Structure to design on (503 residues):
């Protein structure tokens, strides 16, 4: 088989980062091609991919989505009328054309390939070879993780000579005094799958994710909830249960995503107004796992103390239990009220604002919110009758008179420590540098991996949409403007829908 190197194609273009124009290169990275063989009729088996000698250790510096292109695959996009009509397909090392994730999964399984399905993507917008490059940085660091991440995380400052403050880079969370995370096998449920957990209906772990949805009665139970070929397209508010050390499946099964090493090339960079931020150096497909938010886990009391002493900008609450319970309460209250009203009307903007106030979750107190509070879920259409003043009143009376606060699930864990909090101020990973945006390109998902104790989910970031190389990665902090009296924080996210204030 012939090896050839394609030349680097330079598509130099200026990119706007917060009102400053940086000279930035989007390069078409070189592709060492092992061209697929010409197709001859055959039944696929291991020899179809064996000759391409895929070795994960050789992929450290290759963009995740470009890996197959270095080991015998080709990726083609046909020109349709507009991007929507174009079709992307892969040519396998043995010359077959594959157009869907399902068929690619089947191919990888049949040929016993060591490649994983998340190295493939069929979206025509995504360019696996796009690579972002800053031409003339003033300061540059090779790897802020100092070798702890699978891929180095570079750091550039194109604004001034400053370097980021030194922190202890860690890749797994650390329970601090007073916090006990029980990760013993006896406390985990696992599966017996031998099919890479492809059949969700037979995998006990997938079923935990799917059944968990019934914790919110109004939530439409999606039998396909959770990952789809290792991508997550929609937040599962009731949490995802990944396969774990007690499962019989392989460590690369389809239900193990956030427990894998970070697999995308990220860069820490100095922004003009938000301190440091993170960008991706290659195109990222929608639904891709980026990394977790990692730091020290503190009790509520310790977090409050440390927040007061050293600042609270890196504190993120593990409030999964409270938010799910809030959604459930809201549903039950709505259901009660809906019985009183026969004819729902369309809700006005004014009353929607009132509703938003009524249903606002526990004040964020300026801490980052790690659990998605799905307003649509809570504000289901039974709220429409709040249109009349009478009912606003009724709602409040109902809340006071009829609603007996039930004990939270947290109570049954016997923990008097309140909501635990991640503090990434002095120890943390790249997740601590993600800035806030009013139109973020990342969303957060709570995932249970090493423990199924609901107090300790892994706070994981996934891409909300396709993200082109060079884009800053951001999420929504869920701060509430006015939640800290006297504290005002201007938002510089620069999005068209920016609310101008964070706090
Ligand atoms: C979790 S840290 C993010 C990383 C931070 N930029 C750094 O340099 O380490 C949160 C802090 O970043 C800044 N920040 C994040 N998003 C921002 C935004 N949209 N506008 C203004 N400041 C922002 C604020 O100072 C906030 O307290």
């Amino acid at each position: 088989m012939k090896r050839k190197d394609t030349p680097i194609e330079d598509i130099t273009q200026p990119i706007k980062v917060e009102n400053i124009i940086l000279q930035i290169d989007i390069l078409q990275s070189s592709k060492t091609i092992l061209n697929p063989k010409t197709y001859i009729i055959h039944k696929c088996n291991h020899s179809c991919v064996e000759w391409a000698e895929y070795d994960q250790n050789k992929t450290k510096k290759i963009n995740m989505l470009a890996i197959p292109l270095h080991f015998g695959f080709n990726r083609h996009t046909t020109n349709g009328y507009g991007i929507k009509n174009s079709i992307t397909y892969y040519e396998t090392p043995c010359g077959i054309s594959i157009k869907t994730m399902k068929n690619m999964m089947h191919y990888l399984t049949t040929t016993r390939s060591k490649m994983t399905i998340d190295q493939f993507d069929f979206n025509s917008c995504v360019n696996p070879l796009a690579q972002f490059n800053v031409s003339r940085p003033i300061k540059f660091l090779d790897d802020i993780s100092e070798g702890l991440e699978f891929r180095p995380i570079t750091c550039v400052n194109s604004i001034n000579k400053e370097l980021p403050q030194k922190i202890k880079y860690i890749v797994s969370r650390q329970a601090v005094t007073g916090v006990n995370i029980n990760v013993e096998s006896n406390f985990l449920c696992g599966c017996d799958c031998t099919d890479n957990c492809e059949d969700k209906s037979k995998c006990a772990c997938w079923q935990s994710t799917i059944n968990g949805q019934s914790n919110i009665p109004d939530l439409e139970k999606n039998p396909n909830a959770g990952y789809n070929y290792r991508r997550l397209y929609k937040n599962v508010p009731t949490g995802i249960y990944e396969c774990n050390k007690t499962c019989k499946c392989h460590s690369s099964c389809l239900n193990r995503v956030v427990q894998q090493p970070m697999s995308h090339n990220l860069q820490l960079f100095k922004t003009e107004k938000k301190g440091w931020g993170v960008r991706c150096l290659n195109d990222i497909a929608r639904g891709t796992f980026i990394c977790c938010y990692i730091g020290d886990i503190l009790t509520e009391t310790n977090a409050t103390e440390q927040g007061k002493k050293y600042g609270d900008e890196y504190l993120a609450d593990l409030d999964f239990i409270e938010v799910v319970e809030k959604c459930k309460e809201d549903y039950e209250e709505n259901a009660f009220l809906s019985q009183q009203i026969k004819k729902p009307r369309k809700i006005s903007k004014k009353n929607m604002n009132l509703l938003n106030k009524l249903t606002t979750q526990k004040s964020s107190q300026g801490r980052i919110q790690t659990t998605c509070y799905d307003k649509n879920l809570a504000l289901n259409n039974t709220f429409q009758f709040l249109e009349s003043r009478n009912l606003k009143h009724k709602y409040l009376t109902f809340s006071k008179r009829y609603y007996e606060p039930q004990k939270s699930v947290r109570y049954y864990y016997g923990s008097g420590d309140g909501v635990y909090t991640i503090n990434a101020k002095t120890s943390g990973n790249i997740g601590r540098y993600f800035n806030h945006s009013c139109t973020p390109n990342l969303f957060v998902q709570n995932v249970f991996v090493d423990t199924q104790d609901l107090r300790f989910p892994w706070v994981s970031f996934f891409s909300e949409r396709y993200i082109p190389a060079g884009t800053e990665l951001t999420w929504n902090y869920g701060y509430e403007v006015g939640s800290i009296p006297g504290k005002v924080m201007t938002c510089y996210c620069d999005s068209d829908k920016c609310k101008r204030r964070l706090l």
Q: What stands out?
A: The chain has two domains: 10-128, 139-321+354-475. The first strand starts at residue 3 and ends at 5.
